[in-house]
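Quick start: what a row looks like.
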Amino acid sequence: MKVLLGILCAVLFSARGFDQTKAAEGDYPKGEWVSLFNGKDLTGWTPKIRYCELGDNNGDTFRVRDGLLQVRYDGGRYEKFGEQFGHLFYKDSFSNYRFRVEYRFVGEQCAEGPGWATRNSGVMIHGQDPRSMTRDQDFPVSIEVQLLGGNGKDKRTTSNLCTPGTNVVMNDELKLQHCISSSSKTYHGEQWVTAEIEVHNNEIIRHLLDGEVVLEYSKPQLDERDENARPLIKDGHLMLTGGTISLQSESHPIDFRKVEIMVLER
C-alpha cells in the first residue's frame, strides 16, 4: 500500500511540480477566488509527515469532518507527539496570487507537543516539492505564514513570518533570524480568523488580517546555511519566485473551513 501511495504521489506532483508555477497558474481564472478545498475530502492534497513516506496520512492526522478540513491527533499513533511535524501539500504550485484561509484552534495540544507549538500552525508558501523532502525532515524549505492563537490573557501576534531554510529582505536589509512578528492583534479562544497572503513572486509578499497589512517583505530566497536548502540551490541561484503551498500540523488541533486562492495577473 505504501508503495502504491508513493507512486500516486509521484504522479500527482510530476505534472505540476516546484518549477511549474506558470503552467499551474494558467489553469486558474485570473482575479477570481477559487476554493482549493471541496468540503468533502482531501482531493488535491497530499500529506508529508515527519518519519513517514509522502502520502502516508499518519494516524488520520489530516481529515475532513462536517465540511471542515481538520488536523487531529487522536488516531492511535499519537500517544505522544514525538516531533511528528506534518504538512498537507496542494497539488499545484503558484507564484503570483492571493491566498486565504479561515481557521480556528480547538481543544488541547497533543501530549508532549513543544511548548512553543501550543495553538500554533501555519501556511507554507514558496515551498519545495515534497518529493525532495527527506523522510525525517521536519519542515519543508519554504516561507511560513505563522498562525497563532492567544492563551486568553497574554498578547500574541499572528500572521508572523518564519523562514525554514530561507531568508527575506525587509527595509532593504537581509533578515537572517528565523521568525519575525507581525503587528497584528491577539486572537483568543476558538474564534474563526481569516488570514490572507498576497504574493507577487519574488517582488513583494504581504500578510493581511481584517483587510490590513500586518507584515511585508520581499526577495524570498534560499538560505545557504541550511542543510535542507543547500541541495535545492542550482548554479548559485537563491531567489524563490514560486513554489508549493501547504497547511501545517504542529501538535495543536486546528480547523480550516475555507482554503482559497486568487491567481493574479502578472
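That is the whole record. The longest helix spans residues 2-14. The chain has one domain: 2-263.
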